[in-house]
Amino acid sequence: PMVQGIGQLRFTYLVRSAASTARYLATGSVTNWSSVVGVRVCLMARSLENVRLQSTTTYTLTDCDGTSRSFSDGAERRVYTQIFALKNALNQ
Question: Residue 32: left if φ>0, alpha if ψ -120 to 50, beta else—which one?
Answer without folding.
Answer: beta
